[in-house]
Design a protein that fits this description.
The complex is a heterodimer of chains A (199) and B (156). Chain A has one domain: 3-Layer(aba) Sandwich (Glutaredoxin), CATH 3.40.30.10. In chain A, 36% of the residues lie in helices and 23% in strands. An 8-stranded mixed β-sheet of chain A has the order 1-10-9-4-5-6-2-3, sandwiched between helices. In chain A, strands 7-8 form a two-stranded antiparallel ribbon. In chain A, a hairpin with a 4-residue loop joins strand 2 and strand 3. The N and C termini of chain A lie far apart (45 Å). Chain B is built from 1 helix and 10 strands, in the order αββββββββββ. In chain B, 15% of the residues lie in helices and 49% in strands. The chains are: A alpha+beta (199), B alpha+beta (156). Chains A and B meet through helix 2, helix 3 and strand 8 of A and strand 4, strand 5 and strand 8 of B.
């Protein structure tokens, strides 16, 4: 009698206690917790519809930020597809989530080109460009180094850029740092945790 | 100016001759290299696009993919994306080896065919034609569907 009572009542109760304890433990992030280690979201850039835009325009929203450029046919599209899938996985919770695609190739990335590029992936992606000085300052702020590779015979060039995926909370605080190698499941997992925490 | 013109014509002539040679070099016997699951990720504004496929070598000898061209793009180049020390980089690749009885994937985030300067407007739903050249003299003609920018593979 006793062992079965134990199994039926005490073990579940113990489990519930453990669960309660766990909910106060630090969350199990899949990405890196960078709270307090990276600067808040702050910028003055130009949006893909040609309007000046600052971090204040995103207060109250979770922001996922990635640096890239439109003449990047492989890894930038792959990352934007992953972020589009993250938004799909978040479903209704994606309502107050925005993706920022910051160009590291302002010479070629006019707002017009950026607009066509980002909206082809997801309407919730905002493209940002600016003067070379503005972009350099922005990349420096987030330690997101980038450099233009050697010019090709046809005048084209590639830009090596940070693979960082930066996640900010509705107060603009940097919270998590991933890379373009993280899966949509890992990013969505953390976004759900973060949105749950910040509610 | 005249000299330039002649050089250009000569260059065009030798290109045509080379193309003719490449065409006759294709073995009438069954190819040992096969390409499948090809697709192109469409991008707007005539931006460079990427082509992906699975290449199978059913022969007893390794082969190398040494070049590509397309009737639909002025330029097709083999590239490789890499993650290096927190950076995303892309480099040109001269050749891609496929081991005997082996398979190599051109897939997002790795090897891909960079397709530049479309010769005519291209949109999702179109089919583009690509020729892959191998060092054993084989040339494979492939017709690949053009998929939307946010597609994740040859079929979602």
């Amino acid at each position: 009698m006793m062992p079965s009572t134990l199994r039926r009542f005490l073990l579940p109760a113990l489990g519930a206690l453990l669960l309660a304890a766990c909910s106060h433990a630090p969350p199990s992030w899949q990405l890196n917790d960078v709270r307090g280690h990276l600067p808040d979201l702050q910028f003055h850039l130009t949006s893909d519809i040609g309007k000046p835009m600052t971090a204040a325009d995103f207060r109250g929203q979770h922001v996922i930020m990635y640096f890239g450029y439109t003449h990047c046919p492989d890894v930038c599209p792959l990352t934007l597809v992953h972020l589009h899938q993250v938004m799909q996985k978040l479903g209704a919770e994606a309502k107050d989530v925005r993706i920022l695609f910051v160009s590291v190739d302002p010479a070629r990335d006019t707002p017009q080109v950026l607009h066509q590029y980002v909206t082809a992936f997801d309407p919730r992606i905002v493209g940002l460009t600016g003067t070379p000085q503005e972009i350099t300052a922005m990349a420096k702020r987030y330690r997101a180094a980038f450099n233009e590779d050697a010019k090709q015979p046809n005048g084209g060039y590639e830009v090596s850029h940070s693979s960082g995926i930066y996640i900010f909370d509705p107060q603009g605080r940097a919270r998590l740092l991933g890379t373009s190698a993280d899966t949509p499941d890992e990013i969505a997992h953390d976004m759900k945790l973060l949105i749950g925490q910040d509610q | 100016m005249k000299l330039l013109g002649r050089t250009f014509v000569l260059a065009m002539f030798s290109l045509t001759a080379m193309t003719a040679f490449a065409a006759t070099a294709v073995s009438p016997a069954a190819n040992s290299v096969h390409v499948g699951n090809g697709w192109v990720r469409w991008l707007p504004a005539n931006l460079p696009a990427a082509g992906y496929a699975i290449i199978r070598n059913q022969g007893d000898k390794p082969v190398r993919l040494i070049g590509a061209d397309s009737a639909d793009y002025a330029m097709a180049m083999l590239h490789r994306s890499m993650h290096n020390n927190g950076k995303d980089t892309m480099e040109m690749v001269d050749a891609l080896g496929i081991p005997a009885h082996g398979v190599v994937q051109l897939a997002p985030g790795g090897y891909h065919l960079m397709l530049m300067d479309a010769r005519h407007p291209i949109k999702p739903g179109d089919t583009v034609h690509v020729s892959l050249h191998f060092d054993n003299g084989e040339t494979l003609q492939a017709a690949w569907p053009v998929r939307p920018a946010n597609a994740s593979g040859s079929s979602d």
